[in-house]
Task: inverse folding
């Protein structure tokens, strides 16, 4: 269970850093595309590690 919480914390930090960087350097359209890509990656990670795991 400890590994799952550490992994969740790492993903949460990556999301926060990604959002901050995207807000600083990208236009609105690029921000939206990157946000959708991040959501898709997180959904895939959740499905592969927590639903199937």
Result:
């Amino acid at each position: 269970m400890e590994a799952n919480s550490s992994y969740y914390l790492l993903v949460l930090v990556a999301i926060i850093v990604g959002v901050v960087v995207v807000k600083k350097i990208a236009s609105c359209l690029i921000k939206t595309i990157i946000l959708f890509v991040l959501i898709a990656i997180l959904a895939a990670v959740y499905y592969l590690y927590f639903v199937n795991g």
